[in-house]
Amino acid sequence: MQTLPHCETLLLVKQGPALHITINRPDSRNAMSLQMVAELATVFAEVESDTSIRAVVIRGSGGHFCAGGDIKDMAGARNQKAGEGEADPFYRLNRAFGQMIQQVNESSKIVIAITEGAVMGGGFGLACVSDVAIAGPTARFGVPETSLGIIPAQIAPFVVERIGLTQARRLALLGLRIGAEEACALGIVHQAATSDEELNDMLTQTLERVRQCAPNATAETKALLHRVGHESMNGLLDSAAEKFAEAVQGNEGNEGTMAFMQKRTPAWADTE
C-alpha cells in the first residue's frame, strides 16, 4: 500500500508492519454507516496485496469501538423503494455489511480489535472476526437487535463460530449486554485490561508477537484454521501436509531453521 486510501469515516496510520484503523464517527459512538462499510472493504482489499502490512489494528475514537448499525442509514432505506428487478433496500444495506465482515474474517493479515465503550451489533461482529481481541475497562458488549425488533442477521454466524451455539443463543435471544470480564470468559475477547495503560501494553506485546512470526506461515496457518469443520478431515490433512512441505522448503522455512541454528532472530523479526 504505497499510499493510504482517503477515508472520511476512518483514520489510517501505518506503524511498522501494522496498519492502525481508527473508526472515526465519535458523534454517533462510531455507528457503522454504509460509507464506513464501503471504506473498510476498500482498505482490507488493498491491504491484501501489501506484503509490508502484517497486522491490522481496529479501534474506535471517542471512547467507543462501534455502537452497531447507523439508524440514519436504516431510516434512509425505509424511504427507498426497490425498482423492478432490484433487491430490497434493507437487504442491500444488511448484505453489504455481511460481505465486509466476511472479508475481514478471511483477511490473510492478523486482525486485532481493541474494544472500548460500546461494542454492539456490527461492532460486536467485528470483534468476533478478529484474530486477537483485547477489551478495555469500559467495554460493554451486546447483541441488542432482538430488543429493537430486528435480527442480528449478518453477525449471528460469526458469533456462533466465536463462542458456540449455546452462549450465542443466550446473548442474542435475550439481547444481553455484558462487560469485559464476562466477554473474556466467553471467548469474545482474549484479554481484558484493567486500565488504558494496560490496554496499550497488551497491544504492544501482541504486535511484538506478530513481528516474531513469519508472515507467509501466519497467513497459511490462518487459512488452514478457517478450513477446519468445512472439509473432510482426511482431505484437509492431505492438503495441510502439502502446505507443510512447501513451507519447510520455502524461504521462510529455510530462514527460520538457519536463524534457530545460528541463535539469531529471523529476518522477518527485524523488519521495521
Question: Can you tell me about this structure?
Answer:
The strands form 2 sheets. This protein has a 6-stranded mixed β-sheet, with helices on both faces. It has a 3-stranded mixed β-sheet with strand order 5-7-8. The mean pLDDT is 94. The longest helix is centred in the middle third of the chain and has 17 residues, at 89-105. 48% of the residues lie in helices and 14% in strands. By secondary structure, it is α/β, with parallel strands linked by helices. α5 crosses α6 (165-174). The chain has helices at 34-48, 71-79, 89-105, 122-128, 156-163, 165-174, 180-186, 196-212, 215-227, 233-249, 251-261, and strands at 10-15, 18-23, 55-60, 110-115, 118-120, 132-135, 140-142, 177-179, 191-192.
